[in-house]
Specification:
The protein is α/β, with parallel strands linked by helices. Helices cover 34% and strands 24% of the residues. Strand 2 and strand 3 form a beta hairpin.
């Protein structure tokens, strides 16, 4: 699922970025005009007066945001509560489906709203940050960077008793990926497509990890956090060199409508405090995840 929000950035990760001055080639896009505040969000004073802040989070996206019955769970959920507590209001969550790409999600859930049904939220969590991408979507303030995600390979200990596989192994060994994800694009294009016959595609990285645990495939590739969430005693994880992968690490942050910069400053302050005082690392630890501090 989350693969689709990263599709906008994946070509930069896999192929590298063109060398040009930041924002040089981008033409300003449309901004919401003459739109009611209930459509494009609320200012800080309005949020505090009404007593709650709403976060857009991705549905069915463990370990970051998902629902168990009526209970919201995940790293992003706990971060939203930390931010709300810092502002002195209640945290509420709008679980949303990923669209075709990140630009569509930001348009639908932060600065404009969907064409049919749905609504915008005050803040969107788990937004991949890229400097050049931020030029293209100037309707949004990208801020609150709270961790760095990296690519990894999980593998069956029984199948690889002497250590984890590198991508070249998958010319002969089976590997699972989330369908249409960065890992899928990378492995499919590697070595002129020689790995294609052994790639098994799943709806989520969690399903790929379950297949490794069941012995159906030998390994899985994807974002470290999602692989760690599916870790069992039968599986190990490592991060080998990835040839041809120009950026196997990226920063996650939040997005706020461009009209509400005071809100973006307050959210950024709350996140920086949570990262600096160890709160963020503790949240990750509760879900069995490694935490890598973002490079501000």
């Amino acid at each position: 699922m989350i693969a689709r929000i990263a599709t906008t950035l994946c070509l930069c990760f896999v192929l590298g970025s063109a060398a040009f001055a930041r924002c040089e080639d981008y033409v300003p896009g449309p901004k919401p005009q003459n739109t009611g505040r209930d459509i494009v969000g609320q200012e800080m004073d309005q949020i505090i007066e009404r007593g709650f802040i709403e976060f857009a989070v991705y549905e069915d996206f463990a370990p970051y945001s998902w629902q168990e019955g009526s209970t919201a769970r995940g790293v992003d959920i706990e971060l939203g509560r930390v931010i709300a507590e810092d502002l002195g209001v209640e945290a509420r969550f709008n679980f949303v489906a990923a669209g075709e790409n990140l630009e569509a999600d930001l348009r639908n859930y932060i600065w404009k709203g969907p064409l049919i049904g749905g609504r915008v939220s005050n803040v969107m969590l788990h937004v991949p940050y890229d400097s050049n991408f931020s030029c293209r979507v100037e309707q949004v303030v990208f801020t609150g960077q709270y961790f760095n995600e990296t690519m990894a390979i999980a593998y069956s200990k029984a199948d690889y008793p002497d250590g984890g596989p590198v991508p070249a192994y998958f010319r002969f060994d089976t590997v699972g990926v989330e369908n249409d994800s960065i890992a899928d694009f990378y492995l499919s294009s590697l070595a002129g497509g020689q790995l294609l016959a052994n790639i098994r595609r799943f709806r989520t990285p969690g399903e790929a990890m379950a297949a490794v645990d069941a012995g159906e495939i030998m390994a899985a590739m994807g974002p470290l956090g999602q692989l760690e969430h599916g870790l069992t005693d039968k599986i190990a994880i490592h991060q080998p060199p990835l040839p041809g992968f120009s950026a196997g690490e990226w920063t996650l942050g939040v997005a706020v409508n461009h009209r509400y910069r005071p809100l973006s400053y307050a959210v950024d302050d709350a996140i920086r405090q949570a990262v600096s005082d160890g709160t963020m690392a503790a949240i990750f630890a509760r879900y069995g995840l490694s935490f890598k501090t973002p490079e501000w």
